[in-house]
Structure prediction request, 207 residues.
Amino acid sequence: MAGQGAPGWFQHSEDLPYLETLAGAVWESFLVLITYRRGERAGVVERLIEPLGLVLKGGVWYLVARTGESMRTYRVSRVLDVRIQPERFERPAGFDLGEHWTRSTLAYERDRERVWVTIRVGTEQSGRIEDTVDQKFLADAEWITEPDPAHVRVRIGFDWTDEAVTAAMRLGSEAEVVEPEWVRTAVVSSAEAVLARYRGLSVAGLG
Prediction:
């Protein structure tokens, strides 16, 4: 199978069960059918892709692939399933992964629509936002005072839905997502999944 030749140097903090399999498909030029979660609002899709390369940026793995006539970039942590196809594909003549990544990154930075989230937190705990949220997101954050001096709101723009939900989860009960509603729903779903996971473990199972 394509993933068997992948080396053991894939070290990462995310749960990426398909990273090595995708790497094998890249090296051996196998077509791949992936199931991909596009985002909390966009749902799950299936794509038949030609995997052309993997890029590690900021501790996050991305897959560059061609689907039809289009070049796409997929975040590997959002890949839910991978099925290696028996057919191989022919790589585009003259394709350079580094050049493509630089060009597409510049286009993304220019055109991206950020995920803006408003968080309400107690004034005394407001410093926790700066300790928890990556500084690159706080550079253009908007701090909003409330009539209630015991609380403050901060509006933060994230690059990805996952980052917004993760930041809200890390803040825990000390903060509340005010809007958008779909981020609130995603936080509740993530919290319920964690609770279900740990409630299903016995003390012996934790050992």
Observations:
- The first helix runs from residue 19 to 28.
- The helical segments are 19-28, 97-111, 127-132, 135-138, 161-171, 181-199, 203-206.
- The two ends are 34 Å apart (CA to CA).
- Residues 1-13 have pLDDT under 50 and may be disordered.
